[in-house]
Amino acid sequence: MLLQRLFLILSLPITFIFAAYDKPLFEEYETKLISVEKNLAIIEDSPSIMAGSSGIVMYIFDNEESMIISRAVVVSKNGSQAVLELIPFDNLAQNNFPRISITPKTGDIVKLNYLYNRSLIVAPNYEAFKKITDFFINIEWVHPDITAAFLAKRYIPNPDRKRFKEMCSINMTGLITFNMNNMGYFVDCISFKVVKAFKMPNESDKTILPFYSRISDNIKTSPLVIGNKEITDYSEYYRHLLGIK
Fold first, then answer.
1. How far apart are CA 223 and CA 155, in angstroms?
2. How far apart, in whole angstroms, are the C-alpha atoms of residue 97 and residue 77?
3. What contacts 117, CB < 8 A, 6 or more positions away?
C-alpha cells in the first residue's frame, strides 16, 4: 500500500532493485522544434522523455557544424506533443567574448535527457551508495568524495538547489540521485524535478551528514558564511529539498 501511494503521489515509473540493471536507464531523445513562441517550444512527444527532463537546443550551421544555443526543460506532455521551456545555456559562458545572439527557432534540433548517463549521488551511508552504484551499471557515477570536497572548500554543510546545480555543471552531469526512506530518486540537474523513482530497502540505519563520502567529516561550518547551518535530519532535509511529502 505504501508503494502504491508513493506511485500515485509521484506519478513516476518505479524500479525495484534486484540484480544489476545492464540496460540504458535513460535514452537521449533527439527531435526538431515544431514551433517556438517566446520562451516556449513544441516538439513531438515520446515515451523516452519525461516531464521535468532537460536537454539542449542545437543550431546547425551551413557547414553542418553545430552549436548549443539554449537549454530546454519539458514542462508538460500529452502523448502526442510536449511543451518545452527554453532557458539560457550558461555552462560555457565566457565574459571575455560577446554573447551569442542566435535564439531557438522552428526546425532547430533539441536533445533531451542530456548527460543522463552521468549522475551525482547523495546516499546516507556506504551500503546504500554501493548498492545503487553496483545496480545501475550503465550510469557513470561522480564519486561523492568529489562533491564533498567542493562543499568542504566552501564551508557548505547544507547544499541547496543552487549548489547542486553548480556541482552538476562542474562535473558535466545531467542527474542527481538521492536516496532516503527506502526510496531512490533520479532528479534532473536543471529543473530539479524527479524523473524516475526506485524502491531500495536500506540495510543500515547509519546516516552520514550531509551525505556519504569518505571526507564528510571535513565539511564544516564557518561564521563567515551566512546560512550554513548543519543538517540535523538527513531524510527530512532532502525530502524538503525535492518537494517530496
1. 9
2. 37
3. 24, 26, 138, 139, 140, 174
Identify whether the C-beta of residue 35 lies closer than 8 Å to the C-beta of residue 42: yes
Look at residue 231 in the predicted model and tell me its pLDDT: 95
Cut 0.85: pTM above it:
yes
Q: Are residues 131 and 18 in the same domain?
A: yes
Does one domain contain both 153 and 237?
A: yes
| Residue 110, number of CB atoms within 10 A of its CB | 25
Domain span including residue 75? 29-112
Q: What pLDDT is attached to residue 5?
A: 37
- For residue 98, how many other CB atoms are within 10 A of its CB? 6
Tens digit of pLDDT for each residue in 29-54? Answer: 999 999 999 999 999 999 999 999 99
Whole-angstrom distance, CA of residue 41 vs CA of residue 34: 7
CB neighbour burial string for 170-202, b if at least 16 within 10 angstroms, e if fewer = ebebbbbbbbbbebbbbbbbbbbbbbbbbebeb
SS3 at position 42: strand
Give the pLDDT confidence of 158-207 residue by residue, as tens digits: 999 999 999 999 999 999 999 998 999 999 999 999 999 999 877 788 99
How far is the CA of 93 from the CAs of 81, 90, 100, 116, in angstroms?
31, 5, 10, 22
Cβ(12)–Cβ(4) under 8 Å? no
Do residues 108 and 123 share a domain?
A: no
CA 86 to chain centre: 17
Cβ-contact 30, 172 below 8 angstroms: no
